[in-house]
Design goal:
- The chain has helices at residues 5-9, 24-35, 47-59, 74-88, 111-140, 164-184, 205-211, 213-219, 232-239, 257-261, and strands spanning 15-19, 39-44, 64-68, 93-96, 143-148, 189-196, 250-253.
- It is of the alpha/beta class.
- It has a domain at 75-255: NAD(P)-binding Rossmann-like Domain (Rossmann fold, 3-Layer(aba) Sandwich), CATH 3.40.50.720.
- It has a seven-stranded parallel β-sheet with strand order 3-2-1-4-5-6-7, sandwiched between helices.
- The radius of gyration is 18 Å and the shape is globular.
- The chain starts with a helix and ends with a helix.
- The mean pLDDT is 94.
Length: 263
């Protein structure tokens, strides 16, 4: 029977794990998944932030819970996966969102900072995806993985940003998404990436102040920065049956900046 659009986007009965979910884009995506009917597990490093985020979700009528974990540490990642599966039974939707940035000129960029960014922004995505897939998605022959990349992974940045490790990691996320989508299609696992532009957040606060919010907004064809609802639609598309024939793809949500810059 042909389903309606509302039925295709419905996530009732699905479970989702969102890393970096206690604030910013992760929390926005958790709201989207929960509002569409999914049960949501949030993870980040700080319990206090998670408690506050889960309280916000629960106040909105969303079935939400949390686990504190550092997604740069393999042991923590495996604990997060195992505990999530123990408490929720399965994972239908994995949102790899935990991330870090570091600003420094390329010629002086600390190697330890490079490793920190790479361990969280791409190595952590791989380890968690692998563990969740083997323990849940492959056995159940279904799953949705959404990786947070960035328009910074599609090309260079303004020279004053000096975020070579971040850009490199997000470029890796884009190709990780392509490769994993191609390989895991046989298990009915869809893997896609979202590439946000500038959204006000704790991570981007310094950059927005340095470059100027008004200047950045003016550079976008839509003349605005990202807002509190701008990732919701794409998140639910990638997570639901509405997007079941989409895999290995990335989509920029940036007000058109990447069109201008050629990303």
């Amino acid at each position: 029977m042909t389903r309606t659009v509302q039925q295709l986007f419905d996530l009732t009965g699905k479970t989702a794990l969102v890393t970096g979910g206690s604030r910013g884009l992760g929390l926005q995506m958790a709201h989207a998944l929960g509002e569409a009917g999914a049960k949501v597990m949030l993870s980040s490093r700080k319990a206090d932030d998670l408690e506050q985020a889960v309280a916000e979700l629960q106040a909105a009528g969303i079935d939400a819970r949390w686990i504190a974990a550092d997604c740069a540490q393999e042991a923590d990642i495996r604990r997060l996966a195992d505990e999530t599966l123990e408490r929720m039974g399965r994972v239908d939707i994995l949102v790899n969102n935990a991330g870090a940035a570091w600003g420094a000129p390329a010629e002086d960029h600390p190697v330890a900072a490079w490793d920190k960014v790479m361990n969280l922004n791409i190595r952590g995505y791989f380890i968690l995806s692998q563990h969740i897939a083997k323990a849940s998605m492959i056995p159940q022959q279904s799953g949705r993985i959404i990786n947070l990349a960035s328009i910074a992974g599609l090309g260079g940045n303004p020279p004053e940003m000096q975020t070579i490790a971040y850009n490199t990691s997000k470029g890796a996320v884009v190709n990780f998404t392509r490769a994993l989508g191609a390989e895991w299609g046989k298990y009915n696992i869809n893997v896609n990436a979202i590439c946000p532009g500038f959204f006000p957040s704790r991570m981007t606060a310094g950059t927005l102040q340095a470059l100027g919010e008004e200047k950045l907004a003016a550079h976008a064809p839509l003349r605005r920065l990202g807002g509190d609802e701008d990732l919701k639609g794409l998140t639910v598309l990638f997570a639901s049956d509405a997007g079941r024939h989409i895999t290995g793809q990335w989509m920029a949500v940036d007000g058109g900046v990447s069109v201008v810059t050629g990303g």
